[in-house]
Automatic annotation (TrEMBL):
This is Ceramide synthase 1 isoform X3. It is a multi-pass membrane protein. PROSITE patterns: TLC. PANTHER family: CERAMIDE SYNTHASE 1, LONGEVITY ASSURANCE FACTOR 1 LAG1. Keywords: Lipid biosynthesis, Lipid metabolism, Membrane, Transmembrane, Transmembrane helix.
Amino acid sequence: MPESAWKFLFYLGAWSYSTYLLFGTDYPFFHDPPSVFYDWKPGMAVPRDIAVAYVLQGSFYGHSIYATLYLDAWRKDSVVMLVHHVVTLVLIVSSYAFRYHKVGILVLFLHDISDVQLEFTKLNVYFKSRGGAHHRLHALAADLGCLSFCLSWFWFRLYWFPLKVLYATSYCSLRSVPDIPFYFFFNVLLLLLTLMNLYWFLYIVAFAAKVLTGQVRELKDVREYDTAEAPSPKPRKAE
C-alpha cells in the first residue's frame, strides 16, 4: 500500500502540473497539436516551467526501471512494464535533448491521468477490507475508480494520443520542418508506446470480462495477484 500511496501522490501532482501547463498558460499544444512544431529550431531554449516537468518525470522513470528490476515482485507483464519504462525514459531524455519538449508535455498529460486513477483504485481496494471489516465507501470508490480508469485509458491513450500526438509527430512535423531530424526514431518509439497501451487495454478488457461473467467475484489489484509463482519447496517427512 505505501507504494501505491506515493505513486498516487506523484502522478496526481505530475498530471496536475501538466494540466496547468496546457490549460493554465498560453501554451496551445492541446487544442492545436501542430503548434508543437511551430518555430522549431535545433538548440532552442526550453522554458523553465517545462524543464521542471522533465526533471521530475525523468527522475521518476529512472527510479521505476531500478524498482522493476530489483525491488518489485516479478509479474507476467513485468517485461512489458520494463520496456515501457525504458522507452519512456529514452523519449524524455531524447525529446529534451533534441528540443521536442512541447510534444513531450502533451504525451505526459495524456498518460498520467490513467495512472492517477489506477493508484486511486488500488488504494481503495486495500482500504475496503482493512481491520477485517468491509467498508462500503471504499468498495464503491474502488468500483467507480476501476470504471473511470478503463474509460480514461481508452479515451486518453488510445483515442487522443494518436489523434493529437501521432498526428502531430508523423504528419505535421514534416509540414513545418521538412528535414526534421530523428523523425523515424521518435515516431517508432511513440508507436511502440501505443502498442503497449493497446496490449494493456486488452488485458484490462479481459479482466473486466471476467468480472462481468462472474469468474472474478470482486475487484482486486490484478497485477498484485498475478505474480509469477516460484515452485514451492516440497514438504519434508516428519522425522
